[in-house]
Amino acid sequence: MQWPEPERTRLHRPRTWDAASAAGVADLARLVGLHPSDGIVVLGCCCGCRVIHDWLDAYPEQLDRVLAVGLLADPLRPRDRWLPGTDDPGGQGVAGRRVGPVPERTFWVSVPGDPLSGIERDSLLRTAVRDSPLTPDQVYRGFLDDFPESRTQLAMRLQVLQHPAEWPMVFGRRLDEARAALVRYGDRGYVAQYTDPGPGGRSPLDLLGDRIVTEVRARQHPVQDAPGRLAS
To answer: The sheet that has 106-109: what strands, in order across it?
Structure first.
């Protein structure tokens, strides 16, 4: 599917995440409509996962056709969701939590330290993303374009100085964690973990593909223990 890059518009103003996702949902609906009798596998990556979430919610009549959903580095990944058979990558999506209407057929992949899909539960960046109409990518790039040099400057950019009661909890660990996450996002070193081979020589991306293939085969060819009866 095609969805417009959120940073680019004809008027050189940032496109909102809502608008970009709506355009992606429309194109995905068009593609699905071209193949009315086929099963559907949908894959999303990073901020584009929002398109998948929104399409699933907007078209409940198509859910029976969805064989599997794969979400890579999803900024909306729930804390308790990661690829079965792999270790807990830690953290959760910076933009919130969306399980979706077919969680039994939805598979998330994240890696330790991913600042989009594996942020700390109480991260100050979650508030910054929540309060912005832009994608998490755009929010992070906004910080990096004029990176705060001190804790105080970062606190001002995150607007936490407006809540004095929280200062004892904010200054220190949470500001340092937010800064570290922005630095990780900027150097992109965590991205290689998605394609680096792990135990058994398979990368997280490979394992996601394996799981989706297994799920599709199971749904297309269910095991039967007697004629006309599905195995439990």
So the answer is: 40-45, 66-72, 106-109
